[in-house]
Amino acid sequence: xxxxxxxxxxxxxxxxxxxxxxxxxxxxxxxxxxxxxxxxxxxxxxxxxxxxxxxxxxxxxxxxxxxxxxxxxxxxxxxxxxxxxxxxxx
Length: 90
Prior knowledge:
It is a single chain. The protein is of the alpha+beta class. The protein contains three helices and three strands; from the N terminus they run βαββαα. A three-stranded mixed β-sheet has the order 1-2-3. It is elongated.
């Protein structure tokens, strides 16, 4: 099973005090009145998360295509690509 690291939780007031020295390599959940208000994370981690979500979306599309029978053999794919490349030059 895939496990995620536990997010650190802090209050808005503590977040303001710690902001300049805060380590956000792992997400920080900022709460107000005990309720989550923001999630702060490292930009590189955010980018990686976005890429992972995009990949999962593509995998979902592929799974739906497979179930619907929208597949090609490697020979069919190669033939279609050759046709596209040949027609592209004309």
